[in-house]
Amino acid sequence: MAFFDCHFHSDALGVAATMNVILPQPSTSQIGMAAQKHGAKHPTLLLLHGLSDDHSIWMRRTSIERYASKHGIAVVMPAVNRSFYTDMAYGPKYWTFISEELPAIARSFFPLAEERELNYVAGLSMGGYGALKLALTHPDRYAAAASLSGVVDIANRMQAFPQDAMLIFGEGAEVRGTASDLFHLAEQVVRSSQPSPQLYQICGTEDFLYEDNVRFRDYLRSIGLEAKYEEEPGQHEWGFWDRHIQNVLEWLPLPNRA
């Protein structure tokens, strides 16, 4: 695999932005690394960070480079600060950045596939919310989305972060039933004629977000939206996410698994 620490200007944010990118590099001489390549342009996983982290965290806390290598998949890991992947009421337009600008910029820099069938998104905690938000808002762009310990009920959870909620959504803003609400977005996908992305939801039973995840799982089932759901003993911590990002990579509908 090749690793890039990429710094670039974002028109959407109006400032310099950052992302880590790992790309497949087939080799017969890398010690201890399996490698494969699918074609001229790489299947791509957009991998999102949580509330207190940045673009570097997946590389620092997991072996994502080694895990991705055997699957022949590119991984793009951007930084969005504490934005909840949203155009902030009092801050930069991080939703525009992550949903529109970043994919175009990354593809202009690197040989990344554009087809829906070769694009996936995953994340942990706040990033799990961002992953599901992207895939449910744009089911025409993403074939699969995975949430690890995700903030799936943002209207409920943001009560614990009043300052962030005010900066992101505005004073007294109602989130439920809007384009920021995953329950609402899931219902919109069911009502549309577009194919649903494959969904994967995992949460530890001791995680403070566990009850929210169970409620979201049950809601998806009630509206007929299929999702793979897993739970096991675990808390909101990197040992759990390091194990389960490997499961996510095994689950992704890559071309050689058709």
Automatic annotation (TrEMBL):
InterPro entries for the chain: AB_hydrolase_fold (IPR029058), Esterase-like (IPR000801), Mycobacterial_A85_antigen (IPR050583)
Molecular-function annotations in GO: acyltransferase activity, transferring groups other than amino-acyl groups
Source superkingdom: Bacteria
Protein name: Esterase family protein
